[in-house]
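Researcher: I'd like a candidate sequence for this fold, 105 residues long. If you have to choose between options at a position, lean toward the conservative one.
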């Protein structure tokens, strides 16, 4: 439970710190804002899926924009944490170290 409480606190700090839009009703609890207020997305990182992760990406109103398996392009990682995700370009998530999470084809 301690880890989930700290995750929620971290996610709230990220939302407040980056000027995220208001959190839409119905958005899953673990979803966090990635990107600038004007062009970002809410992201939910799900279970590890082979070499990647299951992701759901929502727009600022809470509508699902994309979902499925995403894989890393760049450095290998054991986990993806919210503070690493800096933006979403409509296709890929950009991480702070230059790594991308792209849809698995």
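Model: Candidate sequence:
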């Amino acid at each position: 439970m301690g880890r989930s409480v700290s995750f929620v606190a971290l996610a709230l700090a990220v939302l407040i710190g980056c000027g995220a839009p208001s959190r839409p009703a119905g958005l899953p609890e673990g979803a966090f804002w990635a990107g600038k207020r004007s062009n970002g997305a809410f992201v939910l990182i799900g279970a590890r899926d082979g070499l990647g992760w299951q992701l759901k990406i929502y727009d600022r109103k809470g509508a699902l924009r994309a979902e499925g398996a995403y894989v890393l392009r760049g450095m290998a990682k054991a986990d993806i944490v919210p503070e690493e995700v800096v933006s979403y370009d409509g296709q890929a998530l950009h991480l702070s170290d230059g790594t991308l999470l792209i849809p698995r084809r």
